[in-house]
Structure formats: structure tokens, C-alpha cells
Amino acid sequence: MGANSSSISELPENEYLQKLSGSEPISENDPFWNQLLSFSFTTPTNSADLKLLEEATISVCKSLVEKNPRTGNLGSLIKVFLSRTKELKISAECQNHLFIWQAHNALFIICCLLKVFISRMSEEELQLHFTYEEKAGPSSYGAECEDLIEELLCCLIQLIVEIPLLDITYSISLEAVTTLIVFLSCQLFHKEILRESIIHRYLMHGRCLPYTSRLVKTLLYNFIRQERSPPPGTHVFQQQTDGGGLLYGIASGVATGLWTVFTLGGVGSKASAQPEQCSPLASQSLLLLLVLANLTDAPDTPNPYRQAIMSFKNTQDNTAFSSSNPHAFQINFNSLYTALCEQQKSDQATLLLYMLLHQNSNVRTYVLARTDIENLVLPILEILYHVEERNSHHVYMALIILLILTEDDGFNRSIHEVILKNITWYAERVLTEISLGSLLILVVIRTIQYNMTRTRDKYLHTNCLAALANMSAQFRSLHQYAAQRIISLFSLLSKKHNKVLEQATQSLRGSLGSNDSPLPDYHFWEMSDCLHFSETKLRHAQDLNVIEEVIRMMLEIINSCLTNSLHHNPNLVYALLYKRDLFEQFRTHPSFQDIMQNIDLVISFFSSRLEQAGAELSVERVLEIIKQGAVALPKDRLRKFPELKFKYVEEEQPEEFFIPYVWSLVYNSAVALYWNPRDIQLFTMDSG
Questions:
Q1: So which residues are the signal peptide here (predicted)?
Q2: Which of 188, 285, 329, 432 could form a disulfide with 213 if both were Cys (CB 3.0 to 4.6 A apart)?
Q3: Does residue 433 sit in helix, strand or coil?
Q4: What is the pLDDT of residues 108-122, one digit of tens each?
């Protein structure tokens, strides 16, 4: 590292920062700005340096907050930045390093100051610091008082969408994205969801609004392209071996004043090595996109960024745009699909995939039509398989993605036609060859079993079973291990049912004060019986109700497969016959009698044929008899039930879930951003 951590702590005493936060107004034409903005650094990324930088910034900000209403120096700094960005596009084309370098440095300082301001004051107070009007003296902006917040927001958006992404512009593009995130970070410091915000209003109306589709498109392409950060030295000034030219002479002449101590993360620094963040710009752009897409609707208009995400089309789609949505645009779906497949290890990429599948019918149709759907499904299954290592939100998103996909019958058929070889991450059993459909069943069942023993989350159970139910009518050529696991899950549920039933029965018997008198069947317990229940005993009855709902669902899934595709699934019939005794107790059970009819018929029919074939049959011979019997079994003997179909529907007020989730991702994953955890109000640290 170019300077140790103690160097950062010296920043509050630096003469240039002291002048910026001092009592004297500084005109935007003052040579001071050239001195302030001529420094070379690589943004700190490790948490220790970021925390130190935050603390140093706070010290400067305290003085600036007090004196800025009189000096307007924050406004002057912003105007200096705005004036320099007007030539950025030409500077990039002409490789004008100096201009881009100083504009980036100005934005970096603004971002650092803004972050502290926003964490310590209301938006109304922040606005006052932006509305200072110089009373006298020359001004390159004229005498009128401009709305600097809107001016700066619009400038940042223009910078992101218009400046070409080159090595020399990478850092300023990243800083523009970061500053927009910081502008929106006021949500972090409120427990309640912000439904009206000054910053939101600027972004959804006025000068920023026409850039909506271009901003969303650019952020998506940043995510798609995964452009790596250029090597250190390509976007900052380094002394040349030949003695340096004019640019270095200017830089070295003024850098001694302020920023020679601030060379964090330079060449050879461990802080700059980020194996998880191969593309800081892609990561930061995705976070900003998620934040924008989850802003609450304004009272008079829906969120335009969400509208853009809901409506964009493939570049190969030649149909006309709907006039009802002015924010629609086109993007290369093949590139987007590839990026989504490759980036699913991160929560934010999974959340983006969920949003696109749920909200954009064009993307959903395209994904379901892909012939390489395994490239998308396998990373999602890996998330669920490693459920112990993932946070619950990530698991939910992965599971809901599967549920959305299984709503499509074409998907449910095609996954059984995709044959996979050697699934190395599946550790319970060596899977040398298995269909994608059978693997999906295995992973979902494993998730259910994990949930039963660990988290006991009814929501997770419900969505897992809904995905299995959606697929059940199209089960094809189930792998023998997948068939076994379906029946094994039912066995586990059966044992749990018996245990809970015994506990519930003992609870009622104890409440009635008798251990010997017979009890009525628990399905016919009277309210007067239940009044004897304590809270613990009532929970046993509730647990029994939940477990019976799950058992009913599993029986419906097995029944759906037998009714619709029995002849395609000899391994399931084999597993059913092998564990036939499991189902005996449910034949006369009032909750399951109807659904057990078909299962009982299949067991009886095939058991009879096996008995006729003689004893000591090999597995191969049993499967052969099952295949022959499947053809001979009259289909009209199986009772028809309504088709099992479940559709994912977002709960009311989804923002109550998604906004804290998105900001927890920003808090934990944003590049070179640090917030004091004690200041965070939106979520608790364990949920972040």
C-alpha cells in the first residue's frame, strides 16, 4: 500500500480540506480547485481503509455542514465538477487524461461528502446546502439560483449513458454509478419504506426522466459485459521514466499539498486485489439497477425504471413498441442470458433474474424457448443445494425462479430430455448420468428435508411442493434415485405425522385428566376438547394440520404422475411397490381417502402381477413386469383429479420485502462504500 492507514487519519488537518470546509467562500474560478483536484489514487476497497476514510470525511463534513450555508463551497465544488463534465466526451475521444482525471477526483470528493451528509441530515436539510446563491462576485453560472441537486443528478446520468467506456473513463463511470447509489441511500437511515422522497422525485420527473430507458439499458449492458477494472496506472498519473511530460508536471506540482498521503490501494497493495469483484462497474451497475427498479411509485406516476425493466425487448424483435410505455428499449437477449447464467453465484444476479422472469414477459418467453436451459437451471439448483451456505433471501429467490419456470408445461417436458453427465457438486450420490428434470426433483426434495429438520419454514415448504406439483404431470423417465427420494420423503413425512399425532393425542389425554379412557378420532375433536389445550398443546394440533397438508400434497404429486405418465415412470412404480406398507395407514384416513384410491389401485394391480410372476425376481425382471403392466392397466380405472397447477403471485406491498433486501445487498456488496452499521435503520445487521 502506498501509504499506511494512519495517513488517511491525517486528512482532516490537510490545508486544502481545511480551506474547503473553512469560513471563506471559494469562487468556482479560484485556482484552488486545480490544486485540490490534482491527486492520484486508487479507491480504497478494504473495510479498514474505508472505515478510516469515512471517519476522516466526517471530521471535514462537520465543519462543512456548519459553514457551508454561509460559504456555499459545496455548491462551488459541484459547479466546478459540472463545468468540467461538459467536455468529458470530447476529452475521452481525445485521450485528455488530465481533464478526466480532475473531473473524477471532484466527483470522488463530492461522493464522500454526500455520503456523510445524507447519513446525518434529512433531505430537506441536504437541499438547503445545495441552494446557496452567491450574493456577489463573478459567477460562470450567472446570478440565477439553480437547483444543483437536479443538475448534478442529470449530469451523473448523462455521464453514465454518454461517455464511452475506456480505460481512462472507467473510474469516473464507476464513480458516477456510486454517487447515484449514495444519493438514494437515504433509505438506509429510515426504518419505514420511503414513499415520498426529494431524490426520487427528481429521478422520476423533470430533466432526468427522458434518460430512463438509456440509463436502464446502459446499466444492463455494464452487467452483461463485465468489463474488468483497468490495471492501476491506466487512469491515474504516474511519473514517467523519461522524466514526465507536461501533465505529470502539473500533477506533481500540486499533489504535494493534499493527496500525496492518499495513495491507497496502489500497485502491490493487497487491497486492490478483488477476486470476487472482477468487474466493479458491473457489480455496482447491477446494484444501482436493483435500487432504481425497487423505488416506490410516485403518487402521480408509476416508477419509470420498473416500467423500463418490464417492457424492454430483444434486439431481434421487430414488433412495434407500445405507445403506452415511453421507456421501452431493445437489448441483446442472447448476451443477457449468457451473463445471467454465468453470474448466479451472487444474490443480486439471482434477484435480477427473478425480476426479469416475473415482470418482463419478453424475457420469460425467450428464456423458456432456449434449448440450453440447463445453463440457467443448474446454477439455480446449486444455490438450493448449498442452502446451508446461503442467506434465506437468496434461497427464496432461487426457489421462486424455479416455481415461475415450472408454470410452463414446455419447460416441464424439456427438462426430462436434457441428459447431464457427472454432477460433481451433488455429494450424496455419484450421478454419472441423470436428466435435468430428475436432478431438479432431487434438489427440491433435499431442500424440503433440510427445511423440515432446520428452519421449519412453511413458506419454503409451500413453494418447493408447488414446483414439484407443477412438474408432476410431465414427470418422464425418472432416475431411480429421484423416484426413491420421492418415496423416502413421503416416508419421512409419515414418521413425522405419527410422532406429531402421538404428541397431540397425549396432550389432549393429559388435558382431559385421563390416560386410560378412549379418545375420539382427532378429526372429530370438539371445541370443548380444544378449550382444554394449553399453548403448547395447541401447537401440536397446528403442527399436525401442517404436516397433513404436506402429506396431502405429496400424495397428490404421486397421484398426478401415476394418472398422467405412469407408463413413462417404471422406477417410481418400483419404489412405490417396494415401500407399499407406508401407504397402508392412509387408506382409511378421512383426509386422504379420495387421493389414495388411485395409488391403492396401482399398488394392488402391480403387486398382483408380480405375485403371478413368482418369487425371487431380479430388479430387471420386476421393471420389465412393471413396463408391461403399465400398458395393460386400463386408464379409465384411474380416477381423474383436477390438474395440479400453482402460479407465483407477489404478496401485497412487495416493497416491504424487496427494498430492505436490495439495500442489504448494497450495504454488503457495494464497491468502495462503507456505512457505519450503527447508523443503519432499515434492517438489522443479521438480516443484512
A1: none
A2: 329
A3: strand
A4: 999 999 999 999 999
Amino acid identity of residue 687, one-letter, is: S
- Sign, CA dihedral 351-354-355-360, equals positive
pLDDT, tens digit, 9 for 90 and up, residues 491-511: 999 998 888 888 777 766 665
Q: Write the Ramachandran bin of 338: left for phi over 0, alpha for psi from -120 to 50, otherwise beta.
A: alpha
Give the bridge partners for 419, in sequence order.
Answer: 435
Averaged pLDDT, 60-67: 86
What 3-state DSSP class applies to 642?
A: coil
pTM: 0.88
Q: Give yes or no for residue 553 having a pLDDT over 90.
A: yes
Total Cβ atoms within 10 A of residue 47: 10
Contact between 359 and 417 (Cβ < 8 Å):
no
Measured between alpha carbons, how far is 170 from 154 in angstroms, rounded to an integer? 19
Q: Helix (H, G, I), strand (E, B), or coil: what is residue 314?
A: strand
Type and span of the H or E element at 313: strand 313-314
Phi and psi for 433 in degrees, rounded to 5?
-155, 125
- Residue 236 CB partners (closer than 8 Å, separation 6+): 40, 41, 42, 101, 171
DSSP code for 298: B
Neighbours of 499 (CB within 10 A): 13
Spatial CB neighbours of 165, under 8 Å, sequence gap ≥ 6:
173, 222, 227, 281
Helix/strand/coil percent split, the chain, to 5: 65, 0, 35
Distance of CA 185 to the CA centre of its chain: 18
φ/ψ of 459, rounded to 5, equals -60, -45
Cell of 375: 445453463
The DSSP H or E segment spanning 272 is none
Cα 515–Cα 521–Cα 523 angle in degrees, nearest 5: 130
pLDDT of 211-249, one tens digit each?
999 999 999 999 999 999 887 655 444 433 333 333 333
CA distance 446 to 512: 40
CB 682 within 8 A of CB 191: yes
- Do the beta carbons of residue 76 and residue 299 sit within 8 Å? no
DSSP string of 522-578, one letter each residue: GGG--HHHHTT--HHHHHHHHHHHHHHHHHHHHHHHHHHHHHHHGGG-HHHHHHHHH
Q: How many helices (H) and strands (E) does the chain have?
A: 30, 4
CB atoms within 10 A of CB 628: 13
CA distances to 367, 406, 433 from 416, rounded to whole Å, are 17, 12, 12
According to the model, what pLDDT value does residue 54 have? 82
Asked if 429 and 401 count as a contact pair (C-beta separation under 8 A), the reply is: no
